[in-house]
């Protein structure tokens, strides 16, 4: 492995082929790329571009606004992961609303809501179900438990999104992308074959990668060597198979329908979301129709960052009025956000 890695690093440092833009569509990849200093190894002709891979970042402001409204209701508690707390809605955030008396609870697992609901039967607990294919199975398991045990005081407000349709959206829109670092966590569920139609359609290589520095470097080198080829390469075979986790996908399909979904800065993307089936409307806290996306600070360019149109440092707010302590957009909030990663790791390219 050590000799292979040395050869890969040498290949990347000495690369003198055509300029190539490689987009990662996974927030964990974005964070790992910055943490491992990978851009400093690459020549300028290889550009790593962050795409819409952070689930918190792509959630529209109307969804945050709806959570805040629910958290203000009597006998209601919104339950969420911590990184959603400071994401700006159109006016304020869940964290600020909590400071004004809203009831919001942070958890590490969606299943924690079961004990909360059992302790306070007079309270309606609403889980903020945000995420990609990676987290959908646990939401499906939560819904399965609610249905089987007929739990009346747990609901979900969903903003669930799927990766292949938004990649298709970017490519159809003419994004200057020559290759994709495919998300390893997503591919565990979907299988690497989920990206094959896109690779063939656009003659673009996809490299499914793990999250360590060496894994990412090997995947980047593989994508460079496959420039112009419409194929998917699995550089994460220890956990990713071609067919994926069929049981997890079946559980998702049992409770969720495919739907159009709104992405922050991009608007509605056809067939890119999942929503509770109509027969489970009694568990839904009002997820349909949350499409509006209004920036709290109109100068924020999060949408362009998420689409790879600009680098985070090209936003006039980055590192000035927009910092992790005072985020103006969602990309600066989450540890998986590209603006956050660029800022804390002093990334310049």
Layout of secondary structure:
Blueprint lengths: L1 H12 L6 E5 L2 H9 L2 H4 L4 E5 L10 H11 L4 E5 L13 H6 L4 E3 L5 H8 L4 E8 L4 H14 L4 E8 L1 H10 L6 E5 H7 L5 H7 L3 E4 L3 H13 L6 E3 L11 H10 E8 L3 E10 L25 H5 L31 H7 L5
Parallel strand pairs: 1-2, 1-7, 3-4, 3-5, 5-6, 7-8, 8-9
Antiparallel strand pairs: 6-11, 10-11
Helix pairs in contact: 1-11, 7-12
Describe this structure in words.
It is globular and about 65 Å long. By secondary structure, it is α/β, with parallel strands linked by helices. The two termini are 28 Å apart. The strands form 2 sheets. It has a 6-stranded mixed β-sheet with strand order 4-3-5-6-11-10, with helices on both faces. Strands 2-1-7-8-9 form a 5-stranded parallel β-sheet. A hairpin with a 3-residue loop joins strand 10 (256-263) and strand 11 (267-276). The mean pLDDT is 94. The chain has 14 helices and 11 strands.
List its salient traits.
349 residues, alpha/beta, 6-stranded mixed beta sheet, 5-stranded parallel beta sheet, 14 helices, 11 strands, globular
- Distance N to C terminus: 28 Å
Largest sheet: 6 strands, mixed
The shape, in one word, is globular
Please count the helical segments.
14
């Amino acid at each position: 492995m050590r000799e292979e890695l040395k050869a890969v690093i040498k290949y990347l440092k000495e690369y003198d082929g055509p300029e190539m833009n490689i987009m990662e569509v996974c927030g964990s990849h974005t964070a790992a790329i910055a943490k491992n200093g990978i851009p400093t190894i690459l020549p300028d002709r290889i550009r790593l571009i962050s795409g819409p891979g952070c689930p918190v970042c792509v959630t529209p402001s109307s969804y945050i606004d709806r959570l805040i409204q629910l958290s203000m209701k009597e006998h209601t508690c919104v339950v969420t992961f911590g990184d959603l707390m400071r994401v700006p809605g159109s006016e304020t955030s869940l964290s600020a609303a909590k400071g004004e008396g809203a009831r919001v609870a942070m958890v590490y697992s969606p299943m924690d809501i079961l004990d909360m609901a059992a302790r306070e039967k007079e309270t309606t607990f609403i889980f903020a179900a945000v995420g990609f294919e990676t987290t959908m199975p646990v939401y499906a398991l939560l819904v399965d438990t609610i249905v089987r045990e007929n739990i009346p005081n747990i609901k979900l407000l969903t903003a669930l999104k799927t990766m292949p349709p938004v990649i298709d959206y970017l490519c159809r829109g003419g994004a200057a992308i020559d290759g994709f670092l495919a998300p390893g966590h997503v591919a565990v569920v979907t299988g690497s074959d989920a990206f094959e139609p896109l690779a063939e359609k656009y003659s673009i290589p996809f490299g499914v990668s793990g999250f360590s520095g060496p894994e990412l470097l090997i995947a980047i080198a593989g994508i460079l060597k496959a420039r112009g080829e419409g194929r998917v390469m699995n550089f994460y075979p220890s956990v990713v198979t071609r067919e994926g986790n069929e049981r997890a996908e079946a559980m998702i399909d049992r409770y969720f329908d495919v739907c159009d979904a709104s992405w922050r800065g991009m608007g509605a993307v056809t067939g890119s979301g999942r929503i509770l089936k109509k027969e489970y409307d009694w568990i839904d806290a009002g997820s349909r129709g949350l499409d509006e996306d209004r920036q709290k600070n109109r100068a924020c360019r999060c949408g362009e960052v998420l689409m790879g149109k600009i680098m985070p440092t090209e936003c006039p707010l980055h590192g000035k009025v927009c910092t992790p302590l005072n985020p103006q957009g969602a990309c600066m909030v989450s540890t998986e956000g590209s603006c956050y990663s660029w800022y804390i790791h002093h990334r310049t390219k």
